[in-house]
Amino acid sequence: MVKRLTAVDIAARKGASPLVVLTSYTAPMASVLDSHVDILLVGDSLGMVVYGFDSTLPVTLDMMINHGAAVVRGSKRALVVVDMPFGSYQASKEEAFHACARVMAQTGAQAVKLEGGAEMAETIRFLVMRGIPVMGHVGLMPQRVNALGGYRYQGRSDSEAATILHDAQAVEQAGVFSMVMEGVKEEVARHVTGQLRVPTIGIGASPACDGQVLVIDDMLGFNSGYVPGFVKTYAHLAEAVEQAVKTYAEEVRNRTFPSAEYCYPLKKN
Ligand code: KIV
Asked: In terms of residue numbers, what domain contains 121?
């Protein structure tokens, strides 16, 4: 029986080999990724890459619960972390607890992630003290896109760099077991990572972090929209799918599919 990684195992990886993290939203994809990654992140990026919204803001708790449960069903070894959607945790620590408790109980995930710095520290402490492992998320916080005026990378000025360090230390002291650092300049990512006891997981934040995360659809070339410059495309699945569908459509139209081996009684083998 395969033992699933825990938040405690992940926290202990600080300074060891880099943590491998990918987003995942469905059971079949989770089962392919499971043995290759340390963490499967059910990111609220699903609002953009699965549902076609133009930001993560419309994502609901029910969506996250449904996809979180699917990813847990599809995996055995990786730690599953579910993102808390916009509006589900900011109003009060008590509301955050109710929302996180629903996610933990109804998905079987081992941890949640929430965006925020010093202003979220009290909430994070409240959750952690009540048995909910929390992953932090500092730097560029996509749920704040309207306040930020776009998805601009962070840490450009000394004061922005100081804010990122202050936020990271505040959420660390509140008890996170690791944190995503998104869209941050390399020297800032290196400095912050060096100051923390918990692992940082970078996205667009250089190799100076303790691990890396990418959105699965982006790295597989399955994103028809904007792909950020920090994404390396490891496969071109949209093109492969289009080619397969084109061949299928031609074969249906010229009646070469289904051929005899695909008709009952089946003549395959
Ligand atoms: O929602 C998400 O997928 C994320 C990652 C980009 C870190 O938060």
From this structure: 7-236
Catalytic residue among 119, 122, 172, 182: 182
> Does residue 172 fall inside a structural domain?
yes
Q: Assess whether the C-beta atom of 212 lies below 6 angstroms from ligand 1.
A: no
Summarize pLDDT for 186-221 with one digit per residue, the tens. 999 999 999 999 999 999 999 999 999 999 999 999
pLDDT tens digits, residue range 240-249? 999 999 999 9
My answer on whether omega of the bond before 199 falls inside 30° of 0, hence cis, is no
Sign of the torsion formed by the C-alpha atoms of 38, 39, 45 and 51 = positive
The reply to whether 265 falls in a domain is no
